[in-house]
Amino acid sequence: MPTPLAGTLPVAVVIPVLNEAEALPAVLASIPGWVAYVIVADNGSSDGSGDIARAAGAIVVEEPRRGYGSACLKAISALPDDVGIVVFMDGDASDDTSEMVALVEPIAKREADMVLGSRVLGERERGALTPQQIFGNALACTLIRLFWGVRFTDLGPFRAISRDALTRLKMADRDYGWTVEMQVRAAKLGLVCREIPARYRRRIGTSKVSGTIRGVIGAGTKILYVIGREAVRASPASNTAS
Length: 242
What we know:
Blueprint: E1 11-17, H1 24-30, E2 37-42, H2 49-55, E3 59-62, H3 68-77, E4 85-88, H4 100-108, E5 114-118, H5 131-148, E6 159-162, H6 163-169, H7 178-189, E7 193-197, H8 213-232
Parallel strand pairs: 1-2, 1-4, 2-3, 5-7
Antiparallel strand pairs: 4-6, 5-6
């Protein structure tokens, strides 16, 4: 099925997974038919998540090095050449794929370089975001606004970005800092970013980050580290906005 917008370059959906067998079948079945490619990055699952994705027709890449960013980077390396827009989402059924067209549309119309699904602006199920996540998101977004003057409300995983913009960001973070690195670098380059309200459900299964004390501390520390690192690091000359 073609994309809803005539002339839009093919869209790829990237889904990093680690033991998401319980949720993955429903997630993959819900992805709109106009999506050209679904790339599942298996981050060392032991529950057959990769096999489930293959059976559903997804492109599966293996990334044994643990880390959300590691899985995303592996998936990016497998993007077909004709992909023009990349959507990132989680494999735990927390994101509402019916909203994907709202993420893609401003990019397809060249009105934005990146569009984020904000769980803060949208409706979310009770308990879908922990108090630690809410506080951490607010703190990180406040720091981004203070350092770079760009307003975000969330660091949510459900987002779309043009292939060209993604290349210019030169993403590198391999774990908890992936989403904030993307937003900070987009702000530094002056990319046009938008947020849309996004519905957010309680995830299926246990979170590898917010579900453990170690994960919460690790994520919070890494997010602050990435913001501090980017604040003192100039954008590479090859990344300067045109």
